[in-house]
Amino acid sequence: MSEKTGSAQIGVIGMAVMGSNLARNFANHGYRTAIYNRTWAKTEAVAKDHPEANFIASEDLGEFVDSLEKPRRIVIMVKAGAGTDATIDALIPLLEPGDIVVDGGNAFFQDTRRREEKLRAHDLHFVGAGISGGETGALEGPSIMPGGSPHSYEYVGKMLEDISAKVDGPNGEEPCCTYIGTDGAGHFVKMVHNGIEYADMQFIGEAYDLLKGAGLSAAEAADVFAQWNTGDLDSYLIEITSEVLRQTDAETGKPLVDVIVDAAGMKGTGTWTVQEALNLGVPAAAIAEAVFARAASSSPELRKAAEAALTGPDGVVEVEDRAAFVEDVRQALWASKVIAYAQGLHLIKVAAKDYGWDIDVAAVARIWRAGCIIRAKLLDRIANEYAAGNLETLLEAPSIASGLAESNPAWRRVVAKATLAGVPIPGFSSALSYYDLVRAPRTNAALTQGLRDFFGSHTYRRVDKEGTFHTVWSGDRSEVNAEDTH
Ligand SMILES: NC(=O)C1=CN([C@@H]2O[C@H](COP(=O)(O)OP(=O)(O)OC[C@H]3O[C@@H](n4cnc5c(N)ncnc54)[C@H](OP(=O)(O)O)[C@@H]3O)[C@@H](O)[C@H]2O)C=CC1
Ligand SMILES: O=C(CO)[C@H](O)[C@H](O)COP(=O)(O)O
Question: Per its UniProt record, what Pfam families does this chain match (predicted)?
Fold first, then answer.
């Protein structure tokens, strides 16, 4: 028996950016930590670069497993998808009933459900934990969204809560980690977190385009974002926007943002969010617009052809009072951001019902207040509003509804001005349309139903009596009772 055997309290597999920093975080919290990576050179480098962590580094997976105390606790932090499955398949024969595997990667929640079932069949615990915070968060405290059986969470909950970010709460320091729900619930919530992240960044991009259109330089816009970060918009993404805009390219002397190719990448979590919204019939168009905007940005053929063929205003925004316009944009950004949160949280609520998860939306908002990419001052208010009442939508919360009412005139002015100036604002305008759509006492869906009945006998219901009806459009146009065909 080697001296390593059974001496580590936690093991981390995957020594790229996230795994190595998470392992250091465990070590910093006093946990004896074992590390392993498919490619040994990375494990070796991490152990060598961080002697203070006193890692138990193994080249062989079996040796890594043996180095853990029982029941073994293992966090997988590898490339999501095939990498996770390969790691799990390699682990299963090495583990014993009662061991706990945590997948901290950005897994698709349906994969997590499948994996949880598979590991359960081997009497192994599986916790699918969404983790957000990037490199710094992983090291200093991320937001962690764990899902799995409550029993499985008991084995790893304290450790995950220990390494998570902390926020001040009424009862002292609160961890940004809480049990979310069974099987894929944690990864579902992380997926929606990322969908909101996409929307947040799209709105920020639109705000920057508008400021630029009104004549502000990148440095001036950086000042504006820094200023915004001191108020209601206080958030990590607004803070780093100011830093990115202030960065000058060493080679050209231009603002860095002007030399970065305007084609946004994406790894899939935003797309999954929208696909799930579509599957569940949840309107999340502002988030969808953010995904489509990235897709459009990365469609060079489409953009080249359209740029050559289409004419219109050139994005210059005529502004009489620059300060007033900047304030309007701030309000439009805040209101749109609220809509993205409302759409994302509504999606979580509907999914919880559909998948049988008992998700506490207030708790989700609470653990997003620090550590994660979408952390924002607004989340305090959102958490309090959900805690105060069982909201169907965030938009009905009194402080949110009044904030949106206050921002309304500015939001509408910005959407109108941008449209007239030819500044693309798919996020702002979609968010505003959502606001108008869901508050409308009556929508144009009545006409849609009439049309569907006309061409396909799809039937309709009436506002004034029970039942389902069809108009005999191709005959005498009388109305008959009909079977509901949806
Ligand atoms: N980067 C970020 O900011 C964030 C990432 N995440 C998620 O965390 C996880 C880790 O992310 P990150 O640190 O960026 O690393 P990557 O997503 O770049 O993945 C690299 C790691 O995965 C391992 N790996 C890849 N394929 C396999 C395989 N088939 N079998 C075994 N191991 C494999 C690599 O091992 P090897 O060295 O041998 O190639 C390496 O350790 C991912 O799921 C990611 O989506 C979550 C939040 C933020
Ligand atoms: O999970 C994250 C933060 O919470 C990652 O930063 C996210 O994967 C980035 O996504 P994309 O590459 O699609 O922009």
Answer: 6PGD, NAD_binding_2
